[in-house]
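Researcher: Re-running this chain for the archive, since the previous output was lost when a drive failed. Same request as before.
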Amino acid sequence: KEKCYKLSLDLKQSTNGHVEALEILLLGLCGVPKENLRVHELCLKSGPNLGSEASEIRILCDLMQPEPAWTVRHVGGADQISVLVRTMVESKASKHVLRLFYLLGYKLDHELLRVGFAFHFQRGAQITVTVSSYSRLLKLHATDDDNVPVTPGIQMVEVTAPASAENYTEVAAAVSSFCEYLAPLLHLSKPGVSTGVVPTAAAAAASLMSFSGSTNIRHSEV
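Model: Regenerated structure tokens:
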């Protein structure tokens, strides 16, 4: 089981230029090619036999692995935390995990397909930045069919890092510091509170795109 503190950022009005510029920026900071992302996400909600308060869990299947890898995720609330983070608890699971939760009384609410890319960094913490879009599955478990985009033209940018109660402050500071590198293109926002791109996003994207011929962007240039 791994407990994470999660910061979420949104890239609104995400034209191809904005996303490509962000990818160039992340590649320059990381120095290692991106990791492609394709995840089948199932949202389950508790039934009446599991208590008066409804609970929600997400079961994720990593479709990029040779053999599908399953993860159970529970995301905590953000309102109770003083800084722009929320807790996320993840546990690896076997391929029988969906059947187990059905037996426990959970019901499938909806399914999503998440497609995008990720970069991994070591900057005072193990930081992962993912850029992805979501589509709702129209047929049960049909990840290869045509599906409906949830937010057409919008990409979700998330910054995550594993933490514990002991190093929470250090990890939160490391993530916040890292996010300053993304400021030319993104506003940091609390999960669920959209702030969109900065007013100069188009100019920043155009500026970053001018470095597209180089695979390394120095910090002083960002």
